[in-house]
Amino acid sequence: MEGRTQSATATSSLVVGNIIWWMVMIAAIGVGATHIKSCPVQPFIPIYLSVLGAASIISLILTYSQRISESGIIYILISICMSFLHIFTFCWIIAGSYWVYTEYPPSYTPATARYCQKTTFQFAFVLTTLVWVMMALSFCCGGCYIVFACCCGTLSARHRLSPNRNTFYGGTDGAQGGAAGDV
């Protein structure tokens, strides 16, 4: 991590966020695997949880591995694998959203036709909703950051290009207050 300086707050927030995400994804695998036959209304919901958890954990492991080898063929291979994994995970979240949201609300009584085990369905519903909220926030914050960076860059460039009251365009001697680029 040479050349990368991070504040202690940012680093600790990243570590805590990673730990929480690891725990949630391990729980997703556990809930999905434990209740694999407990959701007859939509049998793909437990599978969705297990696969989403496994794909996220593999993605985290690849991210950590990529940080270790910052150059070379291993870095390129890990980047390619991560790209495919991210595309797969995004498509899997779309499919899981369809499976979860089309069955809302299921029956939590085992004898009924629309039965799904309560923990499994609610975990899938909350996890899917949180993933969409996090993606929306990421895109909004990223978009705001890009707009802010572009505006600041434009303001900075405008400040350098516009003359102040002591300069004048086309001035040839220092008596006029200097060149147009001086601020």
TrEMBL record:
InterPro entries reported for this sequence: TMEM272 (IPR040350)
Keywords from the named record: Membrane, Transmembrane, Transmembrane helix
Protein's name according to its UniProt entry: Transmembrane protein 272-like
Transmembrane segments: 12-33, 45-62, 74-101, 121-151
